Structures are given as C-alpha cells and as structure tokens.
Amino acid sequence: MILPIVAYGAAVLREVCPDITPDYPNLKQLIDNMWETMYASNGVGLAAPQINRPIRLFVVDSRQIIDNLEEGEKNEFPGDEGIKQVFINAHIVDTDGDDWAYNEGCLSIPKVREDVYRPEKVTLRYVDENFQPQEQTFHGVTARVIFHEYDHIEGKLFIDYLKPLKKRLIKSRLDDISKGKIRVDYKMIFPK
C-alpha cells in the first residue's frame, strides 16, 4: 500500500527515533509499504518518520542512481555497485574520508535541492529485516543516501547542513511546503 509522505514542518521529522524489537506490529507489511511508497514517489530512500512512524527504520535503493549514471560518471564512485537494503535500529559506528558535495533532495521537502557536504564513508551497525545483526561500511553515493536517511531517524534534515544565507533564501519555499502550498505527484500529509 502506498502511504502518504509527511511534509516539512511536521514534528515527527524532528524526533530522535527509538530502536524497535522483532515483535513490532506488522513490521514486514510496513517494510513492503515503504518500498512501494518510495518507488511510487520516485525516491531512492525512505525513512519511517517520513511516513509518520517515529522508529529507527529506513530503506535504501541506491542501485537506481548507479544504474542511471552515464559511463563517465560511474568513475566518480568506483566500487559502488549500489544496494537495495533495509536498515533497522541503525547506529553509526564510524565515518571516514573527505567531505564532498552532492546535490540532495528529499521527498518530505519537495522541489528543494541543495549541495550538502558529507564524508565519503560510513560504517553502520544495524539489524536487517530478519533481525540479524550486521555491521557494514558503505561509500560513494550509497553512503550519501544512507547518511540522508539516517539523519531522518535522528530528527535531522538535509537543510540543517546549509549555511544561514542559503537557509534564508529557501525560507519562503519551506514555508509554502509546511502550509501545503505545493503540488507533487505523490500523496503528502501537511502539518496542521
């Protein structure tokens, strides 16, 4: 089932989310719905707070980005094949490498894209959809998507990384989003 995306300004997007247990109600169905919602919204990642669930859960499909790169662009992310993966109870163990800019957007902040600097690599400890413990290091554009989704379960948004002047320049667009004065081709829930 395709779920509505929570728009910028909603309190749930600013919550630090707690871990969940394997008996979380209807978890498999929730994950299936998140995949369906993400693809229907043309996203490459989706975190549970974006569908109004304040829990440590997100899904990532960075293969879509890698598969759509031009041949020359693939050299920018050597060894990054992309992933399609579920992350539950994720916690960052380490980050590494130089910060680099990438133009990010967010389903909860439609029609706003800005360059954000993040490290090249991230190591995460998490459990998969079968609650099997994992620890893995990701790099390139895959790390970028993971950082972005991880921020959602920490109550952060990509716009938090922008310089004050840039934030002032997009303030009116953010206000329009929070008031529902925006048209998108997917269902959204706007703050009251």
Automatic annotation (TrEMBL):
The keyword Protein biosynthesis applies. Binds 1 Fe(2+) ion. Its cofactor is Fe(2+). The active site is at 149. Transmembrane segments: none annotated. GO terms for molecular function: peptide deformylase activity. Keywords: Hydrolase, Iron, Metal-binding, Protein biosynthesis. Fe cation binds at residues 106, 148, 152. Pfam families: Pep_deformylase (PF01327). It catalyses: N-terminal N-formyl-L-methionyl-[peptide] + H2O = N-terminal L-methionyl-[peptide] + formate. Its EC number is 3.5.1.88. Belongs to the polypeptide deformylase family. Removes the formyl group from the N-terminal Met of newly synthesized proteins. Requires at least a dipeptide for an efficient rate of reaction. N-terminal L-methionine is a prerequisite for activity but the enzyme has broad specificity at other positions. HAMAP family: Pep_deformylase (MF_00163). This is Peptide deformylase. It comes from Chitinophaga pollutisoli.
